[in-house]
Amino acid sequence: MARTIDASFTSEASVEQVGNTFGQRTYWLDRIAAFGGGIVLDTFDRADDGSVTVTTSQDLRRDALPGVLGKLYPADLTIHRYERWRPTGPREFAGDIDVRAVGAPLTGSGTAFLAAEGVGSRLTFAGTVAFKLPVVGGRIEGYLATQMRQAIADLNSFTAAWIADNPQSRSAT
């Protein structure tokens, strides 16, 4: 049974700033460098309509996996992540996120919505994570859901800090 992930975070960065930032390859490379862990930017595509599609892969070596996963999966795992962000209206941005593992029965997906709130923005995320393994799958899903909520919070903070440190992200392209 899949676990749901619901999260909401505010930011001082405006929707326009975040949307412009997502459209910069440098942001994604800096984000990957900041969070590390063997993540590679596989594709980056910015369309004329302002949408951005990014795919990454992460090679998880057995020794980097949390305890129970390392014991269950002695082989290496690869996590593939797909993100598509697009403007949906004035001062609104939406995202679709899909995560798949090669080497384990792990899937995750979600939708994100970024809307103006005052001079900043609010990110609302709703998703699921599933680890289809009898007996321990539910515990692993709970752990992963907690980790994903924290990762979303960390990414939200990173994006706001990146915008503050990169003046070119503050204006529309």
Automatic annotation (TrEMBL):
It holds the Pfam family DUF2505. It comes from Mycolicibacterium sediminis. This is DUF2505 domain-containing protein. It comes from the Bacteria.
